[in-house]
Amino acid sequence: MLVLQALVEGMVNASSQGRRVVTRPVLFVILSIFFISGAVYGGSTTSKIRYPDASPVRLRVNLGPEEIVLGSDAASTWGLLETMDMQISVLRQGGRYYFWLSGWFADDAARRAGRRFGASVRLSAQEIDTPIAALRASLQADPEARGYAIPAVRSAHTVPIDDDPGPTYLDEDIWTAGVWRNPETGDLLAVFHMEEYYAANVFVPWYGSIGVAVSRDGGATFDSRPFERRILTSPVRFSEGRRRFENGKPEFLGHVHPTIVPVTDDDGRKYLYLYSGYDGIGVVVARSRIDGSRTGMPGTWWKYRDGRWDEPGLGGLATRILGEDVGGGAMSASYNDYLGRYLLVFLYETGDEREGIYFMTSADGVTGWSEPLLLVRGPTSPGNRLWLNFPSMIGIGKSSTHETSRENWLFYMHGGPDGSRALARRRVSIQ
After folding, report:
1. Residue 292: DSSP 8-state
2. How many of the other CB atoms lie within 10 Å of CB of 32?
3. Which of 50, 270, 299, 431 could bridge 290 with an S-S bond, Cβ 3.0-4.6 Å?
4. Using alpha carbons only, how large is the chain's radius of gyration in Å?
């Protein structure tokens, strides 16, 4: 067993009401992250990344062994070509935990045509804080895990995306990235990562946008195609992405890899915050007021820019809220009631020995982020090696991946050197 230790200084915010925070000092402790033999991904013992302006946090985090929840063999039962291609969303309802699992799919017709498409399937289990064999058996036996939670659009077609002359190619691939229950209506709202391409079967470069849909049947189906309900788009024109890519810029533009969390501000106003990668420059945040059935709909989102929430979700500019080396890959936001802070689990993608799954915390979800702390070290892109991606975390006894606590389950994608992918989990204890 390898024990990584780092001395971390600072403050932790606590709360008697969950969302309202007051600063209080805490004892100086040691950050200890345990990697079980056989599940270690990297070689360096550096346990955090230093940010000169970051707010230090004093924590001790214990990490349990890796357990495989679902492998490629189980995923193929539902038509998945890859077990997961986005972080999972988990929501407890009706006495069961529901998982929305997204990836590349192909049914018989798509296979014959040599096609694949991004879509999502809903699974369920009676309990998640249970031995791995029981959880695996429950998910695999779920009779509802047939058919797609999100209507899959498999036929590519040509449509105008912006005011550029002539049409551009649109291949409607969508991945569920966050599911939230609206407490005012009882409906489920889902946000989606969506990719549009410039030519048939040419997947780089691509343009990302965020869409939304509503479910009134517990997430078995959603009421619209998310492309018809875009909520976040870049001000950069669609065709500009190709020109930038040809000049050596990032392989994507737009908003990508969203995650959502409900937030209550200091004045008691309630919002839904959405974090996403943005135009290849880093992580940004937008918000929508929680206001009945209008919550999260197009036109209700405002991006954070230079200390203000005054840029529209559709076409507005945004300010990066994290360091430039947190590039906007897959991430998951939650409120941690043990820390009294918002918590963001994310990928640190640097191409060196520091790569892995980290987390940061903030009192308001926008500013004063703590230094990144390591959870699992390892490469975050595929190759002839083990790699990991798409992290999310849920507190034990909590109702969704928007809620974390002292004891949690970290879920993520475990990739193999042979191209296989599996859904893995590890227990995370924060002290």
Report:
1. G
2. 16
3. 270
4. 20
